[in-house]
Amino acid sequence: MPNSTIYYIASLTPRETVGVPIEVHTIDEYIEPNLEYLELLRKPGGSEVQNLVALVGVQSHQFQRALDLAAYAVQHGSHAIIGGPHAMTCDTTMLHEKGISFSLSEAELVWPTILENAVRGQLQPVYGHKQRWQQELEAPIVNPPNERALRRYIDKSCGCYPVRGCPYSCSFCSVIKIAGQVVRSQPIAVTIESLKRAKGAGVRNIVFTADNFNKYDRAPELLQAMVDERINLPFFVQEAHPTTIG
Q1: CA 25 to chain CA centroid, nearest Å
Q2: Are 131 and 105 in contact (CB under 8 A)?
Q3: 183 and 216 in contact (C-beta within 8 Å)?
């Protein structure tokens, strides 16, 4: 199934920053049939263009591969940064100041700065260590996988983030380290437009990447809007916390 974070970060990326145009390539290694995409990690020889390789949404079981790709990119003249659950929940200090950057916060807080720094030719070793979460979500409308990418997925789904955060403090769960303990939601209009684009692209079902959808007080309003707008796509919710029904 498509990785939600890849397409979210791509949608969050502006067409230009500090007057410099930005070209975005999305790569999901799980569906790539060969290694030709590695050429994208190499800065063209003699080019003044800055090349930024962002390894996004990296889980712990993917971390070593992310390090390998980041090191390859840096070795070949590109900038590289790793973000996601592993960087946000695990100690990476032994890897700081070694050429690869790390993001320890929600992307919305640091992505504009990362892009500007990359354009100017120098990334900071660490981003987001002072503040991890936005007070209010400033979420983009998500552009779904294109037709070529969708053909390679078994589950032709698209992830959407209507709400983030969890009010609990469970010792067995990392959600509060990733999304915080304040439940925050994006505007319903943003979610609905994301769903419309997904449907138009041929997506067959929606994944609400929300760890506590049952604590989302606007869920009934969102679901009614989906009915009113005739979204007509099946969906399921990624629910991290057990729900008790009395």
Answers
A1: 14
A2: yes
A3: yes
Q: What single DSSP character describes residue 140?
A: P
Query: Which bin fits 151, alpha (ψ -120 to 50), beta or left (φ > 0)?
Result: alpha
Task: Output the CA torsion 10→14→17→19 (10° steps).
Answer: 130
Least confident of 4-13, 16-25, 160-169, 219-228: 160-169
Q: Cα 75 from chain centroid?
A: 25
Q: Which domains does the chain have, with CATH numbers?
A: 4-127 (3.40.50), 147-237 (3.30.750.210)
Q: What are phi and psi of 44, to 5 degrees?
A: -55, 135
User: 185: which 2 tokens?
Assistant: 């939601």
Instruction: Tell me if the pTM is above 0.70.
Output: yes
Mean pLDDT score of the chain? 90
198-219 pLDDT per residue, tens: 999 999 999 998 888 888 899 9
43-20-42 Cα angle (round to 5): 10
Does position 4 have pLDDT exceeding 70, yes or no? yes
Residue 106 has a CB neighbour count (10 Å cut-off) of 22
Residue 71, Cβ density class (10 Å: 0-12 exposed, 13-18 middle, ≥19 buried): middle
